[in-house]
């Protein structure tokens, strides 16, 4: 479990992370979301002991990261701009890391397999594509078989296949009971990957919630109903918000799909379609972070 308590980071007069408190639980993927410059990387660096907080503190499994005896076997991390010697092979890089951290060599083959790098394990890293480099970074993060995994923008620059692979990997790591914290500025990606979301803007906590609750709180969930009896159904749903999209199509907010279906059935009204529509999560995210976006387009 990761716990941040009143984490605050100032650079000179600028406060980039302010009084941030949250808990990341094991067994689920937690998305750490915020617009560019929100303070995500700075927060992750404080959790990993790479930046000292100006105030507050962060712990992993009850202790600051630096106080864990063998941190790589506790916490695996992928940060942006990880450097690997370009002349080394992936296997060489991982083996060196294993040997200097007391991790059995057998883990090298294991993580090469998990990240799909076995067939290029002996090639020099300098020939690696962005996606392969990203996989190598993840292999290094998983080398110590850590119970906690922290990844900063792991899907940046990946092709759709790579994105899908990371999504599946993160879910399986969480299903094994690990604590998984992954940052992104892409709501659409997190909606498909994470169950829990921590959203920050300008260094402050904006939401600590589930994906489902965020959609509900955005008030945008609605049900599309197609029926030749649109007028009659409309009169049977007093208090609902109803927009007529077409003569036979209603967009209903308030009652959920089962309730609308029951009402229609009770009055013998045929339904040709009954489709719950979640508000676009992207819209919910934009609404939440609108005031926190550092650089807004002139036309925004
Ligand atoms: N060493 C530093 N000195 C001064 N300011 C810094 C330093 N590191 C980060 N910042 C500032 O802190 C703010 C937050 O940066 P951070 O990289 O944590 O944001 P982020 O949410 O990870 O953004 P992105 O999605 O663009 O990576 C930015 O305005 C950045 O310019």
UniProtKB/TrEMBL annotation:
Keywords: ATP-binding, Nucleotide-binding, Transport. InterPro entries: AAA+_ATPase, ABC_transporter-like_ATP-bd, P-loop_NTPase. GO terms for molecular function: ATP binding. SMART domains: AAA (SM00382). Residues 2-227 form the ABC transporter domain. Belongs to the ABC transporter superfamily. This is ABC transporter ATP-binding protein.
């Amino acid at each position: 479990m990761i716990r941040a308590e009143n984490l605050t980071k100032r650079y000179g007069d600028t406060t980039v992370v302010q009084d941030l408190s949250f808990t990341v639980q094991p067994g689920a993927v937690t998305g750490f979301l915020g617009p560019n410059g929100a303070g995500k990387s700075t927060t992750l660096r404080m959790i990993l002991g790479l930046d000292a907080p100006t105030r507050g503190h962060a712990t992993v499994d009850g202790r600051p990261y630096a106080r864990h005896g063998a941190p790589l076997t506790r916490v695996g991390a992928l940060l942006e701009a990880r450097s690997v010697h370009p002349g080394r092979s992936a296997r060489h890089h991982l083996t060196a890391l294993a040997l200097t951290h007391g991790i059995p060599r057998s883990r090298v083959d294991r993580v090469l397999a998990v990240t799909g790098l076995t067939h290029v394990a002996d090639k020099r890293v300098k020939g690696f594509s962005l996606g392969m480099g990203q996989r190598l970074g993840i292999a290094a993060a998983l080398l110590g078989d850590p119970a906690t995994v922290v990844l900063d923008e792991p899907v940046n620059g990946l092709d759709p296949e790579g994105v899908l692979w990371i999504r599946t990997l993160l879910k399986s790591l969480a299903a094994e009971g690990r604590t998984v914290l992954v940052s992104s500025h892409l709501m659409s990606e997190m909606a498909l990957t994470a169950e829990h979301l921590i959203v920050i803007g300008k260094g402050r906590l904006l939401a600590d919630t589930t994906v489902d609750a965020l959609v509900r709180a955005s008030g945008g969930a609605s049900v599309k109903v197609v029926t030749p009896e649109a007028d009659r159904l409309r009169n049977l749903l007093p208090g609902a918000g109803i927009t007529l999209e077409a003569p036979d199509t209603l967009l209903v907010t308030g009652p959920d799909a089962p309730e609308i279906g029951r009402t229609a059935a009770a009055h013998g009204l045929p339904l040709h379609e009954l489709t719950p529509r979640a508000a676009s999560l992207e819209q919910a995210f934009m609404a939440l972070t609108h005031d926190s976006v550092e650089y807004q387009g002139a036309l925004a």
